Amino acid sequence: MNTQLETQDAPPARDSRWTALVVIAVAQLMVALDATVVNIALPSAQSALDFSDAERAWVVTAYTCSVAGLLLLGGRVADRFGRRRSFLVGLAGFAGASALAGAAPSLGLLIAGRALQGAFAAVLAPTALSLIAVTFTDGKERAKAFGVYGAVASSGAAVGLLVGGAMTEYAGWRWCLYINVAIAFAAFAVGSRVLPKGDGQQGGGIDVLSGALVTGGLAAIVFGCAQAADGWASISVVLPIVGGLAGVAAFLARQARMAQPLLPLFILTDRARIGAYLSVACAVVGSFGMFLMLTYHFQAVLGWSPVRTGLAFLPLSVAVSVGSFGLGSRLLPKVAPRTLVVPGLLVAATGLFLLSGLSPESSYLARILPAEVLLGIGMGCVFTPAISVATSAIDMRYAGVAAATANTFMQVGGSVGTAVLNSVAVSVTASAGVGAAAVVEGFATATTCAAVLLVAAATAAAALITKGE
Fold this sequence. Notes:
Blueprint: H1 2-6, H2 17-49, H3 53-81, H4 83-102, H5 107-135, H6 139-170, H7 175-194, H8 208-226, H9 235-257, H10 271-301, H11 306-331, H12 337-354, H13 364-391, H14 399-432, H15 436-464
């Protein structure tokens, strides 16, 4: 009896629980802001390290590939070795990976550092949620704690835009990565004293092979998509994509045979849940595509500073919050999820279609700002009901896996979508000639492709998401 109790996470002293929440929230903020921080810094990093437009997407996708492939494994690591221990190791690893990426003298090391960041983020994200659950056992306090966590997570993008712009402009792009070292060090120092202790679950292994199969498969698919600027029929495109699909298929086959799979396959047999997963994945394609293209449009074409670029993106982050909390959360109890998801995807697609007419002379207020607002509100209306569908009508023992799978689909959408859209933009620009007009034509074509994808996703969501009707 005593042995069993020793392996469970015990809440820390009552007066330190809220300090523990601050540590967890700060770590989540660090992970959340990292994506937008690096996006703002990307043009400066490309200039400093002298890598090509075709290669720039890897700075984003190296991170998202690792998170997507290892997120489910990260949750199992936390259960096996203990949440506190896993959280602290995740913090230390994320700090080390950030230092490596920040000091990188070449694109290869920058990509390696970003991939390691993603790997440790895949441990931090599920561990943070489970730490809140075991630290706050009272229902009201737990709701308050998760509310704080959600607010921090949703504000990460906006904070990242401001911090990324300021760091890039006044300290240099490398400090957008170095800042994580300071944040993680502070969180580690405090967290080692206040986080709940526990030894994890005794026995049971970590299915590293499954994590390697899905991560390697996804990375191969993204690699193939990134080579497509010269044509999709090229052997350098087809071979990695086929190999990647084989890796993902092997992962799924392995899950079907295992007694305790990382991903129970019955989660993917529910049509409404699949519709929700596809919806969030496609919505993320739109947001990642807009971020990448407009970052270069603002800085490389219009000559805006990183700070001005960050400020120009703020309406998008605000619109996502309005769509999610102001519309999605309030309307979800009153209407069917499909009633929010389908229009949300179409509204987001409309915002992307506005950018199909983008030119070097396009007005920010007349074209880009409305596009950001429409995309943000549409995405916000997709995420809340889609996550609700993904985690409903399922045994509570698997609710965490269902939610983690939704996050995985988001990261897959961000990875593959960024690679494909960047290849489209580079290919169109190369065929259009030289100069700003050719570059912007590539951006406009890529965002048009993303808009078409969102329309297709809306059609699929209308057919698949039938729960709550």
